[in-house]
């Protein structure tokens, strides 16, 4: 019997990724590539599943699975979501992405996907806004200061060159540190607000990325300005039931994911029938490839709910892997 050739995979650590010279446009382009593949029917995306080891731990794991044909990779990402990790000095979300050859099932890479998750989430928020916010949007109201929040603001500013950025989060120390980081990196002032209302009222773009322990309607529908884009994606809902009633269009990243699972900003809206396939305007990928219109009028008030796509993880993971090879980063590990 002929001996099998060794099988090798690449391990890309968080330290490796920190050293990669990747700019904002490359992050946006990678995630958009995944959306285009989805829009052209060249992907398989399975609704995420969850594992809650013990309710006492106040956290759970999300498992995301997908395949992107034009990239030639399948992937499975496991990301923890633990809201109390700040007490231990740990990120609330830590992740690993496993990439595979879809033709043989052979492993290609294992990637520290913590920073990747932050970047691709911000890119999905920003790409949604590119198609759904008013082009002249200048005021952002952002709730939440977790790691994905930074990339939301950074990439939204990249597209819109914002003139007013307001931020709020549950803990005063986290919102101040978040604002300081943004001011340093973006080179413009950031307003720290004392409450939700002063953060979002009158904003052109409202992003709700809170980390609630249980659903609580803290984002009031009456605060939303006509013509605004609202992007809620917290694990636990922070919106009022009638938020969807004022929307001219509701867009999601993937309806299969939106309508399943116990978590998500509009979980109650789907479960009650307030949001259904009948009143859903589109998936974002349909708008990206031109099959459905995005914003058609300055007066439209639009909601974009994204839960996060495995396709985005795979598309950005592929770019990080390629750049790591070009710069001699990552470890070659023998699999068998």
UniProtKB/TrEMBL annotation:
Pfam families: OCD_Mu_crystall (PF02423). Signal peptide: none annotated. GO terms for cellular component: cytoplasm. It comes from the Bacteria. InterPro entries: NAD(P)-bd_dom_sf, ODC_Mu_crystall, ODC_N. PANTHER family: KETIMINE REDUCTASE MU-CRYSTALLIN (PTHR13812:SF19). This is Ornithine cyclodeaminase. It comes from Streptomyces fructofermentans. The gene is ocd.
